């Protein structure tokens, strides 16, 4: 049984029309754009890796195609995709994050050549296999290291997420993200952004909101029900009681595991992975409980930024994370405005509530 | 009911839909029940009436001896031979009958799901196609044609490609090759070495088409 390992593809000049008398094997070689002609490392076993599931629409920009699907239906959408098969998609919101993951992998492989504790990016899409070739061509074009994918042809990808021990799932479909969260998989919704500021290509930076992201939404519920003063009181009183964990806690944990591998080789100061907590809690009071909770979990966070209700934008601008997770669309949109790749975690009490301005928060509250 | 029961029901559903689309459709699934077990042969009339009782449409019953059951298969122009017996499948395969193992776990979906193990789709030009591979390809081509009778959505039949060992290139090439033979896949999964069984249990195939039963 032979396998085509990409080294011998010679694709030149897509010839979409004539299949005719040529050997189908030849045609297959010609139509696929060549992938990086280097020796490819083997993907790690799913149970050892930190698996990131990304949907096609967050990895690549498929806005135009999505419009065709919504306005003209599935058959036209497929036809368009197949006609443009050799035309790669441009990067989507998750692209720079995925590139950064690969950069970390390269460094991990240098330090630990036999280890399987690496990031593994899996393409998890609802798309039909008809779109498969265009997606594969695009992955080749951008030289991404994605060897695993599930193109479910309309079926739910959630079961496959579990089969791959997925640690984080990113999608543009909030329903799928919610489903994943319900199954205990860290997940967030991503959106196309007008502006994406440049980020580091030597250090992966991941920023998290606190309540309802790393932590449960229990304190947020108090704030929403009883107002800011009550919130402060409560947090102070329960300072030493760890908060319950939120949906992204396990992803922070996974990042921490990889960070320790770099520390083990003396790379603590310039670790290729850096994590941030960006929270509306204030350092003086409610922030303490957050830090103590993290400590009780045995988790470290590199920088904790307590904004005391101030807008998160300017801080994110300074940090330039590759990705920022928040449970409130208000903050996600604010981050996107300044060019940070921000994703929404549809979890907790904020989802039922309408958007609140920061002014509302500062001037405190009528109970809802 | 036996292991193949849900499969037969799914095949019948596909036939039903094909005839709905075109009442004079000739590309239909035709099921032949074959047994070389002499005990079963003694109960032939019971077997036949049982199948009728369960509403299974079986066009032919073959009761042959162990030695020439492959002859029976060839004589009946069988395009795909399904069995739970690995040795039987290997034997038939050697004689040039495309064979596959029936999924031991009963598949539950209404839709007929056929999984192609893509590692088998690709072969070098150096290897001449065996009789069994030719039979395989002609079966796939017919399935591909059958699939084309239905639209993208709500098809009673779904063709699924699964590549276990290679990465995206293997899967991509398999998709290309199959397409050039008129077989368009609905779903595609590239495992790149990840364990197969969790994925297979989600795919719920009625049968798995693999090459030479090596997997």
From TrEMBL, chain A:
Signal peptide: none
Superkingdom of this protein's organism: Eukaryota
Positions of region (Disordered): 1-48
Name this protein carries in UniProt: Cytosolic 5'-nucleotidase 1A
A molecular function GO annotation: 5'-nucleotidase activity
GO biological process: adenosine metabolic process; nucleotide metabolic process
A GO cellular component annotation in the UniProt record: cytosol
UniProtKB/TrEMBL annotation, chain B:
One Gene Ontology term of the molecular function aspect: 5'-nucleotidase activity
GO biological process, one term: nucleotide metabolic process
Species classification: Eukaryota, Metazoa, Chordata, Craniata, Vertebrata
InterPro entries: 5-nucleotidase
Any one annotated GO CC term: cytosol
UniProt name for this protein: Cytosolic 5'-nucleotidase 1A
Organism domain of life: Eukaryota
Pfam families: 5-nucleotidase
């Amino acid at each position: 049984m032979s396998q085509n390992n990409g080294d011998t593809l010679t694709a030149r000049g897509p010839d979409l029309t004539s299949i005719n008398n040529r050997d189908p094997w030849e045609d297959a070689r010609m139509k696929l754009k060549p992938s990086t002609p280097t020796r490819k490392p083997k993907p790690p076993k799913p149970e050892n890796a930190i698996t990131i599931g990304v949907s096609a629409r967050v990895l690549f920009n498929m806005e135009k195609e999505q419009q065709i699907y919504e306005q003209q239906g599935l058959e036209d959408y497929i036809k368009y995709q197949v006609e443009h098969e050799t035309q790669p998609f441009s990067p989507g919101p998750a692209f720079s994050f995925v590139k950064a993951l690969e950069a970390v992998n390269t460094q991990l492989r240098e330090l630990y050549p036999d280890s399987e504790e690496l990031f593994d990016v899996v393409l998890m899409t609802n798309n039909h296999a008809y779109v498969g070739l265009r997606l594969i061509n695009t992955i080749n074009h951008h030289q991404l290291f994605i060897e695993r994918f599930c193109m479910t042809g309309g079926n739910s990808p959630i079961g496959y997420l579990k089969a791959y021990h997925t640690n984080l799932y990113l999608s543009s479909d909030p329903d799928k993200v919610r489903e994943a969260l319900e199954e205990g998989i860290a997940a967030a919704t991503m959106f196309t952004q007008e502006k994406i500021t440049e980020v580091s290509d030597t250090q992966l930076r991941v920023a998290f909101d606190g309540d309802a992201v790393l932590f449960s939404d229990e304190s947020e519920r108090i704030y929403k029900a009883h107002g800011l003063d009550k919130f402060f009181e409560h947090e102070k009183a329960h300072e030493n009681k760890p908060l319950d964990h939120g949906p992204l806690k396990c992803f922070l944990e996974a990042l921490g595991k990889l960070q320790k591998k770099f520390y083990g080789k003396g790379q603590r100061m310039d670790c290729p992975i850096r994590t941030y907590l960006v929270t509306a809690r204030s350092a003086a009071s409610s922030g303490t409980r957050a830090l103590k909770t993290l400590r009780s979990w045995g988790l470290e966070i590199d920088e904790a930024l307590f904004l005391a209700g101030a807008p998160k934008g300017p801080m994110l601008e300074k940090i330039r994370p590759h990705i920022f997770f928040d449970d409130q669309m208000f903050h996600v949109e604010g981050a996107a405005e300044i060019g940070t790749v921000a994703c929404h975690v549809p979890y907790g009490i904020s989802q039922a509530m309408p958007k609140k301005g920061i002014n509302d928060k500062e001037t405190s509250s009528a109970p809802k | 009911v036996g292991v193949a029961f849900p499969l037969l029901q799914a095949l019948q559903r596909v036939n039903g839909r094909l005839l709905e689309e075109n009442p004079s459709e000739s590309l239909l699934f035709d099921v032949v029940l074959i047994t070389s077990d002499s005990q079963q042969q003694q109960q032939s009339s019971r077997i036949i009436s049982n199948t009728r009782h369960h509403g299974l449409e079986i066009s032919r019953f073959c009761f042959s001896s162990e030695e020439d059951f492959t002859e029976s298969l060839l004589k009946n122009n069988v395009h795909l031979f399904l069995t739970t017996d690995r040795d039987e499948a290997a034997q038939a395969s050697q004689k040039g009958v495309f064979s596959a193992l029936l999924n031991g776990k009963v598949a539950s979906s209404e839709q007929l799901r056929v999984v192609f193990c893509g590692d088998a789709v690709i072969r070098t030009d150096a290897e001449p196609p065996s009789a069994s591979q030719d039979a395989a390809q002609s079966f796939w081509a017919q399935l591909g044609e059958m699939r084309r009778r239905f639209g993208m959505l709500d098809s009673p039949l779904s063709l699924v490609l699964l590549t276990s060992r290679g990465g995206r290139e293997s899967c991509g090439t398999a998709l290309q090759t199959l397409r050039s033979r008129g077989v368009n896949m609905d779903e595609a999964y590239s495992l790149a070495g990840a364990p197969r069984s969790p994925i297979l249990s989600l795919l719920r195939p009625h049968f798995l088409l693999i090459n030479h039963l090596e997997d």
